[in-house]
């Protein structure tokens, strides 16, 4: 089916919007009246611009407060409509959206509504225009889709049909099954939007909080199935009013929009995409830095060793157990210091994973490699993080580690695991291969702060492109504003990525990122880290007094946590202990010990940790 | 009565919050548990810090999920409480807030709740602590203040009382009159917060959208009267959870908070402040600029003349009718170009106006003047705009214009009105003293973009300090994000200031400002402006096609508007015509013609105007 997007869903001037929609691959647009009014282009020029861009104009919208009004008022409305139909002829578009009236003049009289809509359709027909009548969720007398359809049906005019909008239908809690009773050819248009499930005034909800399908809480796919069964074959069009998208750049928003439609189409069998290939683990995390030494010092204190160096690039491999960290001092390193630039995702089928990503509009990255290097498939996540689909120690597939040459192990404190190739096939999590107590075993999770405008996009990206599961988002109180955090994981928990977003658009994603390393014995790990000169984030004593109030912890245990700055959490499944290193550039490390099925990230402790990190910053 | 503020209402570390509260003049604070947990100071150090700052610690908060639970659970709760009471002893605070339980374990059993709260109060008493039990609006079984009070009453424990919170009471729609039935000495604490009237989930509403009294839609004053009548004599304490305040600087937020309490106290007769002195008109608007010439060119084309120059400062007076604009090239001019830095408010009693402002914590500005100058009282508005309280041509009061010396009139196109002193005593608005058609008569309104964090503060400031009336705020769609705009006016409409705020914290108030000049004949004014070389903002032709659809305007009239770029609006009261100059620095001018009793600002046209202004910017 053809795809379309309402210009009101994108930011900028009309021509910016059209360009972004075309680039993202939409087939058409709905033109929102205010966008046309504010454009210096004539309707004919807009028509030509759309044609150049390969876009059809699928809808002109909206006309308001037309029907079920006294005769003199209706005469004025017809006069206004004639102007708009004339405009539509110049624009070359054949369908107009008429919203159910919210006017105080409107009468609760379906027969009058039908008669006047019929007259309107008569007039429209003369201009080659069809009228699509839609129930606004807050319409004065007509607020449900079945009511709007009953009026359209009784009018019985060939140029009058209905427009369905998933927001208006689902926000009212209407059962979308009844859509199947509408003849497909009388559904003149379908507008799709999702929204978070908020208990709020429906008008405000609609105007400010709509989002793209799959980013909210509505069953948009279920609704679409009913519409398809009804026989609708017009465009699938996104109409999303959203305060965030209004400020975001139109280009990325349009890509996000179209990805959401592709996922929706796939979910109802309207599009066939390559299957998702769920990553099985984190092969590596890659830091770029203009100076390897500060990072190296922390990694060394964490018990990792530099085991290998890339054959052709200034990239070191540090590892311990299955935790692998690349330190890249190449030209991509920026002056703003150390940052987490790439993630290697352990993939059962890297090529298929990349094809999936590409089909969902993820930018495919050029293979930055020398001719002899193992080919690595890579795409960019919405925040710019590079995602490599790769394999470690897989007999049938190329191993990214073969690009690395072993170096002399130089761990100052103890011997380390042998360098690649390693025999073990990767069991995420605890203990395992005879690690010394407190040894790091793997990467527990990665935390990435997202650009403010792209938080919802990021969650949908990780779900749809990578096949990860998105947990509920949680609010976290930083001393200087509320954060939101949402984790995406695979079913085993061997891939966990926490996506965070700051309190406002100034938070452009340049905040801290972190790498959490798992250990089976955090006390031993923290102690050793300190013994070799590492500095752990100091946690206030008041936190431990509160811990004593909340949990009946052993006195000695509590004293140890207090001494080392270890935070503690417990839920119905298990326990979680964690502590933090100081920050290098944008990056810090966390040591975590999960016991007994605990699935969270210690969100309860985040305000204290954030305040402690602020306290470490240079004083004003 | 003493005033207090909850630390959760302010941004930053605990010590930042305490410092801001003390500087704003609060007597005490409520300490929010998470702020204490995150502080590196011990409870004793916090106590000492508060004492140094002259702050009492009026409340420790909150304890949650205490009452009406099975015995084993309650035993754990008492254990937890003992830790907290011990902490409170170290902190030196005597009252703890206990919120009604939201726990799934809580039973709907008032007798059990009373018995357990009584046990808790017994324990508290041993530590010199009183328990203030409060109904959360979303409490599991106890969600109204009268219910909480009935439990407290039946417990009958001397160390158990109730805490009243205006948000929890008013958000539920409870009648606050029943408060008078509670003995004053059993009201252990009073928390005050306002909120905009939103139909949304009450928990989300409370956590994110509370605001200071007078900034929302609740009748907080009415509630306070009932509490005072009940005999309460504890502190008036602000507890405001707000996403904006969390990001704003603590210092200004604390001042805003305390101003709101002062206004509230005044409104119920608990504080006596100097009466407001409502300004009668705009005496002048002052632009600062590093280069007077571009501004002068626009003013000249608008028909204003340079009539006088300040005796001791590089300030020119431009005027026409009662529109007076100062152009200041002095050292306050910044490199970011021309901006609107000060407003002269025509005041019936400048000294009294300044005393009012000072009593409401408006920063009093030093009198930047030479010994011979007329003393001008001035304060700073929240956005930094200087407000001068002054008089023009008032026989008994010093006239600011006497600091200016007339210069040779040099209007190139026509003779201008004589320079000050003028005899007329100032009738705002139309025609008057034999103006040529299209002459500017006065300043119709000023529009100032506010820093994002201070929009609500600005409205309260203008209402309370200046005695202006605040209209409803309206959303305006800029192509790159939603604006909100709210006008403050005097009753005659001779002072109108439109406060606008951009879509996010990046909008720090450096966006455009404008000066709207009234004329009785906008067509003549616009035509003459163009004839002498002025450039009006071009408005797209599509706008006029829409105007033709919406209004039955005369064809010739419409053609004139189209030619000149004049925008049109109409409401039940009258008509509004307006057009815009190009922007100089941050400032542009608007010409407006109001007819009939039109009171608005053409908000309907703002999206087209904003898009047209964006289109004038340098291309990317």
General description of the model:
The first copy, chain A, is of the alpha/beta class and 620 residues long. In chain A, strands 17, 18, 19, 20, 21, 22, 23, 24 and 25 form a nine-stranded mixed beta sheet that branches. In chain A, strand 5 (130-134), helix 6 (145-155) and strand 6 (160-165) form a beta-alpha-beta unit. Chains A and B meet through helix 2, helix 4, helix 8, helix 10 and helix 16 of A and helix 2, helix 4, helix 8, helix 10 and helix 16 of B.
Q: Give a short account of the largest sheet of chain A.
A: 9 strands, mixed
Write down the Rg of chain A.
Answer: 29 Å
Number of strands of chain A: 25
Oligomer: homodimer
Low-confidence stretches of chain A: 411-434
Largest interface by Cβ-Cβ < 8 Å: A-B, 56 and 56 residues
Strand content of chain A: 15-25%
Q: In terms of structural class, how would the helical and strand content of chain A be classed?
A: alpha/beta
Average pLDDT score of chain A: 91
| Count, helices of chain A | 18
**What's the N-to-C terminus distance of chain A?**
58 Å
Q: Which overall shape of chain A is indicated by the principal axes computed on the Cα atoms? A: elongated
- Helical percent range of chain A? 25-40%
């Amino acid at each position: 089916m053809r795809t379309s997007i309402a210009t009101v869903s994108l930011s900028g001037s009309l021509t910016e919007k059209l360009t972004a929609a075309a680039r993202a691959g939409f087939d058409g647009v709905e033109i929102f009246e205010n966008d046309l009014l504010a454009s210096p282009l004539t309707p004919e020029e807009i028509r030509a611009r759309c044609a150049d861009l390969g876009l059809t104009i699928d809808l002109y919208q909206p006309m308001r407060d037309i029907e079920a009004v006294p005769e003199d008022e209706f005469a004025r409305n017809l006069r206004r409509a004639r102007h708009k139909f004339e405009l539509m002829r110049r624009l070359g578009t054949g369908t107009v959206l008429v919203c159910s009236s919210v006017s105080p003049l409107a009468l609760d009289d379906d027969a009058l509504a039908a008669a006047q809509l019929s007259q309107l359709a008569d007039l429209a027909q003369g201009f080659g225009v069809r009228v699509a009548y839609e129930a606004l969720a807050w319409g004065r007398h007509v607020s449900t889709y079945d009511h709007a359809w009953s009026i359209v049906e009784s009018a019985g005019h060939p140029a009058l049909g209905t427009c369905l909008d998933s927001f208006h239908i689902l926000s009212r809690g209407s059962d979308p099954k009844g859509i199947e009773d509408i003849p497909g050819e009388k559904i003149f248009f379908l507008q799709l939007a999702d929204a978070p499930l908020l208990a709020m005034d429906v008008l405000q909800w609609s105007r400010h909080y709509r989002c793209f399908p799959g980013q909210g809480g509505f069953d948009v796919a279920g609704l679409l199935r009913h519409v398809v069964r009804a026989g609708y074959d017009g465009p699938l069009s996104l109409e999303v009013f959203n305060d965030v998208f209004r400020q975001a750049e139109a280009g990325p928003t349009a890509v996000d929009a179209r990805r959401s439609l592709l996922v929706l189409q796939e979910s109802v069998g309207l599009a066939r995409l390559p299957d998702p290939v769920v990553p099985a683990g984190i092969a590596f995390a890659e830091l770029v830095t203009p100076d390897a030494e500060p990072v190296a010092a922390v990694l060394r204190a964490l018990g990792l060793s530099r085991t290998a160096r890339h054959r052709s690039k200034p990239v070191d491999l540090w590892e311990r157990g299955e935790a692998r960290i690349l330190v890249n001092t190449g030209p991509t390193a920026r002056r703003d210091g150390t940052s987490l630039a790439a993630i290697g995702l352990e993939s059962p089928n890297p090529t298929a994973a990349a094809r999936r990503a590409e089909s969902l509009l993820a930018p495919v990255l050029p293979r930055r490699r020398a001719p002899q290097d193992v080919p690595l498939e890579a795409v960019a996540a919405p925040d710019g993080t590079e995602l490599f689909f790769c394999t470690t120690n897989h007999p049938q597939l190329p191993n990214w580690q073969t690009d690395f040459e072993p170096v002399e192990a130089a761990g100052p404190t103890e011997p380390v695991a042998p360098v690649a190739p390693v025999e073990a096939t990767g069991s995420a999590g605890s203990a395992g291969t005879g690690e010394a107590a407190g040894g790091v075993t793997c990467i527990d999770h990665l935390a990435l702060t997202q650009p403010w405008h792209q938080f919802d996009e990021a969650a949908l990206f990780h779900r749809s492109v990578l096949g990860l599961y998105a947990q509920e988002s949680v609010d976290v109180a930083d001393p200087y504003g509320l954060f939101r955090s949402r984790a995406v994981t695979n079913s085993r928990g061997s891939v966990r990525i926490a996506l965070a977003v700051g309190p406002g658009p100034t938070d452009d994603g340049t905040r801290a990122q972190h790498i959490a390393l798992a250990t089976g014995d955090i006390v031993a790990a923290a102690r050793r880290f300190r013994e070799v000169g590492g500095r752990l984030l100091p946690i206030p004593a008041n936190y431990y007094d509160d811990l004593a109030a909340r949990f009946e912890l052993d006195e000695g245990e509590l004293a140890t946590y207090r001494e080392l700055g270890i935070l503690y959490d417990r839920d119905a499944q298990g326990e979680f202990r964690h502590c933090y290193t100081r920050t290098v550039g944008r990056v810090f490390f966390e040591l975590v010990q999960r016991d007994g099925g605990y699935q969270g990230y210690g969100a309860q402790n985040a305000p204290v940790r954030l305040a402690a990190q602020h306290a470490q910053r240079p004083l004003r």
